[in-house]
Amino acid sequence: MMAVQSGPLACPFASSPDTLPLEYPAQPNPPPRPTCKDDRIRLAAVNSIVDEVIDWLGDDWKGNSNRDELIADLLLVINERDGYRAARELETRRGWIGADENLVEILAGLPSALMNATDAAVREWVKANGIRPKLNVGDVVGTPDGSGPIMLIEPGRGIYAVQTESYRQRWGERGRFGTHYAYEQCAPVADADAA
Q1: Are residues 188 and 140 in the same domain?
Q2: What is the pLDDT of residues 47-101, one digit of tens each?
Q3: Where are the beta strands (DSSP E) in 99-167?
Q4: pTM
Q5: How many structural domains are present in the chain?
Q6: Where in the sequence is the domain holding 83, given as residue range(s)?
Q7: Is residue 134 predicted with pLDDT exceeding 80?
């Protein structure tokens, strides 16, 4: 049995170690992997911060707006990577007034909220569809960015960490893991042209 590595080769982003083999059946033709562009994931991200925005609105919220409209406004700015830009967009496009550093700080959490919602949906998708790695640590695979060895497997997220040549050039000896690729983005070197 192969286990996800712990210690210096463990993924610093994994919330809990998953072990191989996984204890759920594989589905032969799973639906596509969830992404941050999926409406339900974007909605989950916005819902995770909407109460903070309502608290920020305070008395302005009471009786003047409805939650669905507020959520629609926040969905307009979910792709902003900066809380200040998101606040400015709400002022410009939706007529919000009084954006301050507190709102900027709340909106600065949107990228993390989107990443967390995506990660949760991917973990659910992996488990529900029995997504399993077909390759092992050390196997050389082709990726969209070149080929290299698999350094780490994150079965809970359906991800291989691969050290491509571009990764090694950028990180040198400091790079111990590799760039994360979905299982479906990797193919053994002999099949790399299909990746």
Answers
A1: yes
A2: 999 999 999 988 777 665 688 999 999 999 999 999 999 999 999 999 998 899 9
A3: 140-143, 146-154, 159-162
A4: 0.76
A5: 2
A6: 39-116
A7: yes
pLDDT for 22 equals 46
Running DSSP on this structure, what letter comes out for residue 50?
H
Strand order in the sheet with 187-188: 179-182, 159-162, 146-154, 140-143, 187-188
How many C-beta atoms surround the C-beta of residue 190 within 10 A? 9
User: By the 8 A CB rule, do 160 and 133 touch?
Assistant: yes
Q: Reply yes or no: is the peptide bond before residue 188 cis, omega within 30 of 0.
A: no
Is residue 164 within 8 A of residue 119, CB to CB? The reply is no
Rounded Cα distance between 89 and 170, Å, is 35
The answer to whether residues 45 and 107 belong to one domain is yes
**Of 124, 144, 131, 121, nearest to 193 (Cα)?**
144
Q: How far apart are CA 54 and CA 46, in angstroms?
A: 12
Alpha-carbon gap, residue 124 to 109, rounded angstroms? 22
